Amino acid sequence: MRTWQPFCFSSLSVVARSLRIVAFAGFTLVIAGCGPSEPGRYQISGNVTYQGDPVQHGTIMFEPDTSKGNSGAAGSAAIVDGKFDSAQDGTGFSGGPQIVSIQGFSGENVNPEYAPYGTPIGEGKSYIKAFDFSENEDVQQDFEMADVIDAR
Fold it and tell me: What PROSITE patterns does the record point to (predicted)?
């Protein structure tokens, strides 16, 4: 039969040591996880036109060109009234060789059910073209969608 014993101070030091170890391990994990969580991203902005006119609505996407060794982060931005800025409405890109894809809409013949941004530009085809951008810095670049439709 076990008898009741008053609280023992030696067991307090074991508990205190255990708490210190757990706290230190948790702190170490938090500090290790506080570094950058994704590769460097840079702002890209500019104008998008189709046959000289601003593209009213659309999306521009930047995909690293893996055929040229770029494995960085992809980026995108919304196009509004012919302008895009990844810092305003999108995600920055990694720079270097990229495949740029643009889907543009005219802003005309808007139908909320199936064409909220109007009719597609370029018969609904995407503008796709390879570019070599500067690396490790923000970029300003304009695009004319009539240049290339569905070509790499």
Answer: PROKAR_LIPOPROTEIN (PS51257)
Q: Could you tell me if 44 and 62 are in contact, meaning their C-beta atoms sit under 8 angstroms apart?
A: yes
Got the DSSP string for 59-88?
Answer: EEEEEE-GGGT-----EEEEEETTEEEHHH
- In whole angstroms, what is the distance from residue 122 CA to residue 111 CA? 18
- What is the C-alpha separation between 41 and 88, in angstroms, rounded? 14
**What's the whole-model pTM score?**
0.69
For 91-129, the pLDDT digits (tens) are: 999 999 999 999 998 888 778 787 778 888 887 777 899
Asked if residues 63 and 70 have their Cβ atoms less than 8 Å apart, the reply is no
Residues 6+ apart with CB under 8 A from 37: none
Determine the straight-line distance between the first and last CA of the chain, rounded to whole angstroms: 84
Q: How many CB atoms lie within 10 A of CB 61?
A: 19
Listed residue (58, 142, 60) closest to 106, CA to CA: 58
Structure-token match 């305003």, residue found: 88
Write down the CATH number for the domain with range 44-147: 2.60.40
Domain boundaries, the chain: 44-147
Residues facing residue 50 across a β-bridge? 53
